[in-house]
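Deliverable D5.2: sample structural annotation.
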Amino acid sequence: MIWDELDARLNALPGTVSAYAGRVDAPPTWTRRPDATHYAASTMKVAVLLALHRATEAGTLDLDAPVEVRNEFDSALPGAPRFACARHYDNDEAVWERESGHVPLRWLAERMIVRSSNLATNLCLRHVGLPAVADAWAIAGARHSVTGRGIEDFAAREAGITNLVTAADLAALLGGLAAGATRPGPLASPAGCTAMLDVLFAQEFREDLAAGLPDGVRVAHKNGWVRGVRHGAGVVYPPDAPPYVLVVCTTGDPAGGEAADDTCRLLADISARVWAARHDLRPAAAGPPAGHDTDR
């Protein structure tokens, strides 16, 4: 079986690899350490996106309202000084070019996903708030994921305030968006879920999970990486099979190489193997036990 082969391969690698594969709105076919916690890197930005849309639908936030692009943020650690993002560490010059100006919050939310902008993320967090992100995780059914601080909030990080995800929680979040686009659900309206998926479809960093898919296959996804961490999470839409969720989270150096490209290739290979089994993604009779266990 492909799943046994995948487990055997991953068992031989160093570090921690968590995974979740299964059709949308159905129990998973394959999981591996699905509840092991990993540093979130930029995958937490999907929960921020959901919090923004939920606030908009609740009437407490206007995504089309212009907001100031001001690189100064309150720390999640009470009493700590304000902090700022580093331009050289960001992936998106477009947001920095608008510094001191005003842009729609919706545009910042898009840049947060499609270019994984750290500055855009912290600006979005400023307006929606960390409690709203916690609510977004909870309504998605996440059990272990936490968004405790903004990006590059080093004072909070040093105090142990962090951002965590699990493969199962990311699968619940993304799978919930995919299911919610087809019928009313707890996350947001079908129109809201569709809008969020459209942003995730436009993701420009495609060197991990998306690289394992044939050209032209639609995938709504978000990845994240820092030194020693690489995650990919998405919903794949085959033209000849039902959509499925695939999440792979890695901590350590499971690819055994010196370059980040090695871990990208590992995720791409897992993605290609799951794609090959897309017609056979049935719920597992008995899943394996739960796991054990700056941002771009």
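Annotation notes: The radius of gyration is 18 Å. The CA atoms of residues 14 and 254 lie 5 Å apart.
The annotation will be released with the project's public dataset once the embargo ends.
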